[in-house]
Design brief:
8 strands; 29% strand; homodimer; alpha+beta
Amino acid sequence: MFIGAQVSLYPMTSDFIRVILSGLEALSPWRDQLRIETDDMSTLMVGAPEPLFTAIRDLFARVAREPAHVTLHTTISRGCPGEPDEPSCRCDALTVEQNLSLVERQALALAAINAAPRLGVKIDVQFSLYVMGQDRHMDEIYGCIDFLKNSGTFLRSKNFCTRLSGDAGAVFETVQQAFLRFGPASGHVTIDLTASANSPSAR
Amino acid sequence: MFIGAQVSLYPMTSDFIRVILSGLEALSPWRDQLRIETDDMSTLMVGAPEPLFTAIRDLFARVAREPAHVTLHTTISRGCPGEPDEPSCRCDALTVEQNLSLVERQALALAAINAAPRLGVKIDVQFSLYVMGQDRHMDEIYGCIDFLKNSGTFLRSKNFCTRLSGDAGAVFETVQQAFLRFGPASGHVTIDLTASANSPSAR
């Protein structure tokens, strides 16, 4: 299994270079657990889901504490058939627990959100979950949407994506659980996610 | 068939509100062919692929002509089973021509890029194409990657996505052809795309 993300930060300020570099500093504690490589468009992070989602959360929470409007976009992927197996990406939720029923997986996902730390940073997210390579991919999507509606972070459905809102800790845990608990254990599952903070626009 | 996109502009300048509003003005000629609705995180555009991709191209080309570093993210979707049928989204490339072989579709896609207008605006793009709901989704993905490598806009492969570079006219035509010509005609196909212009970072 190969798991990772391409992550980009977009601070809406003329001081954007400093804000981006400050955000990248928040990744320092994770560099021993994740492979992290930055180019001119995005930062690649490869590793197991827990450090991966926590690192993306910490990156965004750091810059969201500044006053400027900022967004983050990430493309997250697991199980792409074109990528090599990577032992550092191993994750029990994807191996031991994926044979559980949809209802049991939904319960584990909700418990994880309740246990997630609160960071005191309010964010908005919209994201899409894609499950490839099986005929009945929408069963897992609908099961995931049921979970999201009960997550406590659900804001509303939109065309092509779902809006979440709340503390960065609960919101990123919600997305991590959507990514881990739905779709086949060895399947190709991706997320297209945008996070936003300090927007001057009203919802 | 329901076809559309969620589109967001991120100008890296403290003057971002003016730049975004200027970009949205570039959509005016398309409002009779597309349903366009803006909220605080993105602009929904619904309609046939040709006006849809041209409108997104024009939106980004407008703001890329300004000096500030700017990025655009869009989530583009066709055939999502959860969306209603929408007659305005009808497209011959997706109905009449989709029964052609992979090689014939690759040739049509390359011809379309050669016929695309040049806008005089240089952009970088990275994007992922997702084909859902069939067992052998990677055959179409690999066929699309072959096309991209011959497109004249290919820069390099990255984990989880492909980099393109060139004139906005050719680059957006490349992405439109990837979206239209690969994956089953009635299938669920999506694109996760980021465009960038005026970046201070070297490639």
